[in-house]
């Protein structure tokens, strides 16, 4: 984009929509939120700074929808101007929260009963579930801090929690990795773990 807000070499009659998705309660950017353009197959995940970007959109109006696990989906219609870039911000709310208008017309958030999962950061489990939900292929994502800890773990102790993985060990140390549930066959691989 140029300093005059025009789009270089965009297709005739097309523009750009870009923006950021924020957590309305904390004001922090939401990474890996899904942003779709309704009525099309176009979608993207926000980057680590909550940013999204769509180029070559036909001039007119684009209806964007943002979704993230544990948050209410939000939809907004954004104007797309040919040869220009439009910037838009979403502020998504946790599921179960409601908004009431206060005396000063500021947003006041009234929450239903809830349980605190983490301080300011989202739990590793919520992040892992969102990554798995939006993966392009079948993916199992496991949050390391959700696994049990006994104090002397190595990677083999954690791999045994993955679906379809078996670890054969000598009673103390993980030794051989079997994939797909098959016992020691040609599909097994030795597990090398560095301390």
Q: How would you characterize this protein structure?
A:
This protein is mostly beta strands and 195 residues long. Helix content is 8%, strand content 37%. It contains two helices and twelve strands, in the order βββββββββααβββ.
Summarize the model shown.
With 195 residues, the chain is mainly beta.
Give short descriptive properties of this protein:
2 helices; single chain; elongated; three-stranded mixed sheet; mainly beta; disordered C terminus; four-stranded antiparallel sheet; disordered N terminus; 195 residues
SSE order and pairing:
Blueprint: E1 14-23, E2 34-37, E3 43-45, E4 51-58, E5 60-67, E6 74-80, E7 85-92, E8 97-101, E9 107-111, H1 124-133, H2 155-159, E10 165-169, E11 174-179, E12 188-190
Q: What topology, given as strand order, has the largest sheet?
A: 3-2-5-6
Largest sheet: 4 strands, antiparallel
Low-pLDDT runs of 5+ residues are 1-10, 101-105, 185-195
Number of strands: 12
